[in-house]
Write a sequence for this structure.
């Protein structure tokens, strides 16, 4: 029997929970937490579920569902994190908390979809809690997250969890096959580690250049040749991402400022300065994390090749280069130690606010010493 929501077809848990809740036969909960890797289909499922909720009882159910899918139904509110990629109080105050107390415009229900639930700060969470605890009967909240472990327990405990599975390598490769050569599609699918959005990023746009830069750094450490400072390109890319995020915040302020009362403009500028700094750093860290993740996977691939399991290599379209690097090792101990060093640096950048350029440069020299154990 096909799933009532096509986006849950490959997700048994989500299918079981949501199919049973689809009206008119189902009794939907007031709050759901859709969790699973990026690119697993959570957004599509949220749109389809919202469409089913809003179409229930409508005079023209098909039209109501279509408008919900297209994002133009007046009783559907879709919230994304602000320019700093953090859900702050202002993101949800009016759009969710206040709006959820107002009766629907045309449907029996109002549906609120909130992306990036794991980025919600304490102030936003405190505002959201009362709505989650005592929602109006017509309000339904759907929270989306790629990192359920980072969702605040007070939020997580008040939602019904809906799990979405990671897509298989074959499914990801099939999605990319019409856009890049088959060997590249398979490699990007493997390197994505179940993240559909990452697979697409690695295959298209600046993805190939990112892969090349990460490979250059990893292979330079293996070759004991850091004279060319191969980490520089990764830092420059991260800096460019940071500048882009900052500009997005500045552009948003420039667009909003003319419509604000004069007495509020100074406050808006101060808030935008803080938001811009957070957005800039977050974008830099995310870009470096992507790059270092690939460095770690290269070292891991060389290690499994040394161990006699080349079929496990993620850089499958670069298997010859991986094998060439592996030929210089009698064992994989130093390579595995290198993977641990990469993970330590990624953690330090994300959680300890380490200085990016110093952390990455130090990592390069530590990797060079670690993989000297052959």
């Amino acid at each position: 029997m096909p799933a009532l929501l096509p986006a849950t077809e490959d997700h048994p848990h989500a299918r079981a929970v949501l199919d049973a809740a689809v009206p008119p036969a189902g009794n939907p909960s007031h709050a759901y937490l859709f969790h699973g890797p990026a690119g697993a289909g959570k957004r599509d499922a949220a749109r389809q579920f919202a469409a089913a909720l809003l179409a229930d009882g409508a005079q023209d159910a098909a039209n109501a569902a279509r408008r919900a899918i297209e994002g133009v139904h007046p009783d559907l509110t879709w919230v994304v994190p602000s320019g700093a990629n953090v859900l702050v109080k202002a993101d949800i105050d009016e759009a969710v908390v206040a709006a959820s107390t107002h009766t629907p415009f045309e449907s029996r229900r109002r549906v609120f979809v909130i992306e990036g639930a794991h980025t919600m700060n304490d102030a936003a969470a405190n505002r959201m809690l009362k709505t989650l605890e005592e929602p109006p009967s017509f309000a339904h909240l759907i929270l989306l997250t790629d990192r359920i472990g980072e969702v605040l327990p007070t939020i997580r405990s008040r939602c019904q969890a809906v799990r979405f599975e990671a897509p298989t390598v074959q499914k990801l490769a099939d999605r990319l096959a019409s856009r890049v050569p088959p060997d590249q599609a398979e490699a990007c699918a493997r390197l994505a580690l179940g993240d559909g959005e990452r697979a697409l990023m690695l295959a298209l746009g600046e993805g190939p250049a990112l892969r090349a830069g990460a490979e250059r750094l990893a292979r330079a450490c293996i070759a004991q040749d850091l004279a060319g400072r191969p980490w520089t390109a990764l830092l420059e890319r991260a800096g460019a991402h940071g500048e882009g995020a900052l500009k997005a915040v500045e552009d948003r302020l420039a667009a909003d400022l003319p419509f604000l009362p004069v007495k509020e403009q100074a406050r808006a500028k101060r808030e935008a300065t803080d938001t811009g700094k957070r957005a800039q750093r977050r974008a830099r860290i995310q870009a470096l994390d992507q790059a270092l993740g690939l460095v770690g996977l290269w070292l891991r691939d060389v290690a499994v090749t040394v161990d006699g399991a080349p079929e496990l290599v993620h850089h499958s379209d670069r298997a010859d280069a991986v094998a060439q690097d592996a030929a210089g090792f009698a064992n994989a101990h130093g390579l595995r130690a290198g993977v641990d060093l990469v993970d330590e640096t990624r953690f330090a950048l994300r959680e300890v606010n380490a200085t990016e350029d110093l952390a990455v440069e130090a990592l390069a020299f530590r990797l060079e010493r670690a993989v000297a154990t052959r």
Remarks:
- The beta strands are 31-35, 76-79, 110-114, 139-145, 160-163.
- The radius of gyration is 23 Å.
